[in-house]
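Hi R.,

Here's the chain you asked about this morning:
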Amino acid sequence: MSRFWKIALIVIAVLVVGGVAFRLLHKPEAAAGSGHGGQHSGQGGADSQGQGQSGANGQDKDNAPVPVTVEPTVKQSVPVYLTALGTVTALNTVTVNPQVAGQMWTINFKEGQAVKKGDVIAQIDPRTFQAAFDQATAKQKQDEASLATAISTLDRNQKLVANGYVAALDMDTFRNNVALLRATVLADEASARSAKVQLDFTKIISPIDGVAGIRNVDPGNVVTTTTSIVTLTQIQPIYVIFSLPEQNLEAVRDASQNGDDKLQVIALDRSDSHPLDTTGFLQVVDNQIDTSTGTFKMRAEFNNPKSALWPGQFVNVQLRVRTVTGGLVIPAQAVQRGPDGDFVYKLQPDQTVAMQPVTVAGEVGDSHVMVSKGLTEGDQVVTEGQFRLKPGSKVQALKPGEVPPAPIASDASKKKGGGRRGGGG
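And here is the predicted structure, written out as C-alpha cells:
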C-alpha cells in the first residue's frame, strides 16, 4: 500500500472517532431542550400576545388628538401703511460765525446745551468798536451844532435883506450852507448807526432755538468773519425725509387729496419695536422723481417733544395712506409658508384640520396680519402646534392661554408597574 493511502485512512479514522465523541457529549443537552420545549412554546404565545397589545396601543397613540391653540378670524378696521427708511434732519441748522474780527472774550454756552433765540452765546472784545461808535456820535453832534449856527445866521440875514443890508447873493450862500450841513448831519447819523451795528456784532446772538454742538473756538483766540464758533441745530420740531417707489406716488397723492387731515407718519426704531415720537404729518412731496433710483422724496414733520429723534438718525417710517373697513385679521404666527404660497391650518367641524391657502394683504401692528382671500369671519385657525399637524389630523382645540392636559401613562408603564406590584406580593 502506498504512503498516500495510509495517510488518507488515518485522517478518515480520526474524523469518525471525533464525530462519535461529539454525539455522545451533546445528547443530554438536546434531551433537556426537548423537556423544556413546552415552556418555551407557552412563553412565545405570551410574548406574541403582548406584542399585539403594544401594537394596538401604539396605533391608539398615533390617533390621539393633537393639542393646538386656535384663534378666530376677526373683522376690524385696518390702517394701511407704506414703509420706508428715513433720515432725521434738523428743522434749521446754523453755523455761527463772527461778523466782526477781534479777540474772543467769553463763551457763554455749554456744548450740547439748549439755547434760545436771542441768547448771547459769545462775546468779542468791544473796546475798539465802542471807540469808533463814540467818535461817530461826537462827529454827529459837532455837525448838528454847525447846522444850528448856520440856521440862525440864515434867519437873521433873512430879516435884513428887505432893508438892503444884505445882498441877495449872500443869502444864497447862507441857504446853501444850511442845506450842506443838514446833509452832513444825516451822514453822521448813518455813520453812528453803522458803528453801533459793528459794536453790537461783538455780542454773538443765537439766531434760532436749538442745541449747541461742539465749539471750535476757545476764549482768548483772535477770530475773523470766517471762523466757525459752533453749529446750532433746531430739533423741535424736526424733519424726517424718506423715499418711496414711484408706483406708490398715485396712492400718496390720492390719499392727500381725499383726506381731510394731513397724512399721518410714524417713525419707528431700527427694530420696528416701538415708535420713537408722537405721530408726525406729511408736509411735502417732492416735485420730481429721481430717474436713477425710480423713487420720489417726501418730508414729514414731528413735534419731537422728548428729543427722541436726532439729526442724522436712520428710522423706519410708516406712512398711513388709507383705512380698510372690515378687514379680516388673524395672528401672524398662524400663517405658514409652503411651496405653493402662504397657508393656514383651518379647524373643521369634526375637530380635524385642513390646509387652507390664504393671501396676506399687509401687517397689522407687530403680531397680526390682514388676509384678503381664503378665510371668512369666525374661521378658527391654528396659531400654535402646527409643526405636529398634517391635513386631516385630529386636534384638541385650545383657546389662547389654556394649558393642554398631561399625557396619559403608556401601557408599557402600566405593565411595568404591575410587575413590581406582583413581585411585592
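One quick note: Confidence is low (pLDDT under 50) at residues 28-56, 409-425.

Cheers,
M.
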